[in-house]
Design brief:
Keywords: Extracellular matrix, Oxidoreductase, Secreted, Signal. By secondary structure, this protein is of the alpha/beta class. 35% of the residues lie in helices and 22% in strands. The longest helix has 20 residues.
Length: 382
């Protein structure tokens, strides 16, 4: 029996997610929007019986056992932690800060029987699943270099909002770079220990954002990561994100090793061993998900479709709606993966300010909110 679903969000991801859930047999019982008007409009469009702008109305809905959270990052932690506390399974997008991510990890550890999963759909894209399997089998030999390029149009909303504000989780590094950081960890089996980055905001105002308001989120980002060991056995990664290219979209992830290379372009996987003279197509795009939709590139669309199929497989074997099986979603990123990713994002931001390499140190306990105040009082006392 599949769990009833409550969806938080009315953006492009929610618009695509709900039909995918319904196609796999999930019943979407409730929808939350920031305003009654937003929630009502999308609920009618997608045939969702209940809508609200009050989060508790969805979390306490008797037919909702799985909560999907696709809202601005600054709101994610509050909803995710409360949902777990009420006893709901959770699939959610990234939080805004490492502290928020840590609080989500703490809640997930407290309720280990519940599903707590980050929604990075690239892990489920068939091309990346196949790439990871080939890497494990030694297709490229020892992994040496990862090179990623993502180019596309602006990530800004039509009006001034969270996507314009760096502190609220906007910008290419946080929105797209976080998915790449997680993906590279999934593919290589390693985590970054040092990073170096450069962030720029080339478009601070446009026809819709002007006057006293300015965009603070990055539209260009370049960063490097050293992953795995600190010696020659480590993996060198370079990532370039450029969202100043309207009308185009490039998504390329290449892994180079001692014996060859693998590259995913869009949704197709190519490979070439060192002794081969040309590149070969290893996995063509045969998903049949449908055409690319506005504001959701095909890799993310197909990954989202595959993730929903995995969720169905995870839940369908159980008669109790809240029970799930680990196997079908074993590759999904956990809240702990989300904390690692957010830690790397913040390290890249610090590197961009200082111009220096920064060590990645994952939080092991929540900082004391009164720490700075205590230090100031101590200095005044002295």
């Amino acid at each position: 029996m599949l769990p009833g679903v409550g969806v938080f969000g009315t953006g492009s991801t929610a618009r695509v997610l709900v039909p995918l859930l319904q196609a796999e047999g999930f019943e979407v019982h409730a929808l939350w929007g920031r305003s009654e008007e937003e929630a009502c409009g999308l609920a009618k469009e997608l045939s969702i019986p209940f809508h609200t702008s009050r989060s508790d109305d969805v979390l306490l809905h008797q037919d909702v056992d799985l909560v999907c959270i696709y809202i601005p990052p600054s709101m994610t932690r509050q909803i995710a932690v409360k949902a777990l506390g009420i006893g709901k399974n959770v699939v959610c997008e990234k939080a805004a800060t490492a502290i928020d991510s840590f609080k989500m990890v703490t809640a997930a550890r407290y309720y280990p029987q519940l599903l707590s999963m980050m929604g990075n759909t690239l892990r489920f894209l068939p091309a990346f699943v196949a790439m990871r399997q080939l890497l494990v089998e030694g297709y490229v030999g020892d992994i040496q270099v990862c090179d990623v390029r993502v180019y596309g149009p602006s990530l800004l909303d039509q009006s001034y909002g969270w996507t314009s504000e760096e502190l609220m989780g906007g910008g290419g590094l946080h929105i797209v770079g976080s998915t790449i950081i997680d993906l590279l960890s999934y593919l290589t089996g390693h985590r970054a220990h040092r990073v170096h980055g450069l962030l720029r905001t080339f478009v601070e105002q446009n026809n819709l954002i002007r006057g006293i308001r300015r965009v603070t989120s990055d539209d260009f980002c370049f960063f490097q990561m050293l992953m795995g060991g600190t010696g020659p056995s480590g993996v060198c990664c370079t990532v370039t994100l450029n969202f100043n290219m309207p009308g185009s979209f490039v998504h390329e992830v290449m892994v180079v090793g001692s014996a060859g290379r693998l590259v995913v372009r869009g949704t197709e996987l190519y490979g070439q061993r060192n002794e081969s003279k040309c590149e070969e197509l290893l996995l063509a795009d045969i998903s049949g998900v449908g055409p690319e939709v506005k504001e959701m590139p095909l890799p993310h669309l197909q990954g989202l479709s595959s993730m929903v199929k995995a969720l169905r497989q995870s839940f369908q074997a159980h008669e109790e709606r809240r029970l799930w099986s680990q196997g079908p979603v074993a590759s999904a990123p956990t809240f702990e993966d989300g904390l690692y990713v957010q830690t790397v994002v913040e390290a890249v931001k610090r590197s961009s300010i200082s111009g220096e390499w920064v060590c990645v140190e994952i939080m092991s306990q929540e900082p004391d909110p009164n720490h700075n105040l205590c230090e100031a009082l101590q200095r005044n006392k002295n």
